[in-house]
Amino acid sequence: MEAGRPARADIFTMMTYSPKPEHIDRRWFVLDASGQVLGRLATEVAVLLRGKHKPIFAPHMDTGDHVVVINADKVELTGNKERDKIAWRHSGHPGGIKGVRYGDLIATRPVAAVERAVRGMLPKNRLGRQMIKKLHVVAGGEHPHAAQKPVAIAVGERPEWGGLPTPARGPVTAEQKPARAPKAAPVAEEKTAPGPSAPPKAAARKPAARKTTAKAPAAKKTTAAKKTTAAKKTTAKATAAKKTTAKKTTAKKTTAKKTTAKKTTAKKTTAKKPTSKGTEE
């Protein structure tokens, strides 16, 4: 082995970390868009929505936070974008394309302008559709999310990482609860007292006697079944005898027909003889 080269056992290996759902802690932040450029604002919002400011970021998971954007109507554009940049949309029908200049879009629909810019910087799949739901844009300076206690941050500022959330303690199970003494005493008294347990046994024997008496109708049913089977056999024999007699009568009729047919053929042959003599003369 070469000098200075570590042995195989000394090599340190580390497993790749993958965030779990219980590791994701979603916080709320507020961004003021007054005087901010639309594109610069959209990039900062997209970073917070994706969770790229966290050390547990993973591109295949939504680890981001909720973002509230206020004063969306005071956002600005650089250069001649208010006049030259156009927001296109299509209805899906032939010739259904329409466009609006960004100057008019910000003046009439500032919330749609900010949402459109942020949506273009998120993944174009179901993950991106899930992330955009955490964006809350308001045209004015007040928002209806005060109950979530959002933290105000400036554009370009990265919130501090507070670490993984502590696991919440679950409810105390029955095994963890201490056994209560008053409940143990009645159980012991029930085991030692044989008196109350004896009457239920005597009462349980009565249904057994009823079951034995109920066997008599079963015997009647068997005799009735035998009678019905015997009657069916006799009727079957009678029908079989009728079928054999019918076959015999039909056989006699066929033999009689054969004899009559022979007689008619004999008559025909006798009638033909005189005609043959006439021809000879």
Chain-wise SSE layout:
Elements: E1 28-32, H1 38-50, E2 66-70, H2 81-84, E3 86-90, E4 97-101, H3 102-108, H4 110-119, H5 126-131, E5 135-137, E6 151-152, H6 181-192, H7 198-213, H8 216-280
Parallel strand pairs: 1-2, 1-6, 2-5
Antiparallel strand pairs: 3-4
Structure in words:
The protein has helices at 38-50, 81-84, 102-108, 110-119, 126-131, 181-192, 198-213, 216-280, and strands at residues 28-32, 66-70, 86-90, 97-101, 135-137, 151-152. By secondary structure, it is α/β, with parallel strands linked by helices. Among the domains are: 23-152, Ribosomal Protein L13p, Chain: A (Alpha-Beta Complex); 237-275. The chain has a four-stranded parallel sheet, covered by helices on one side. It has a two-stranded antiparallel ribbon with strand order 3-4. β1 (28-32), α1 and β2 (66-70) form a beta-alpha-beta unit. α1 crosses α4 and α3 crosses α4 (110-119). The longest helix is centred in the last third of the chain and has 65 residues, at 216-280. The radius of gyration is 51 Å and the shape is extended. It starts with 27 loop residues before the first strand and ends with a helix.
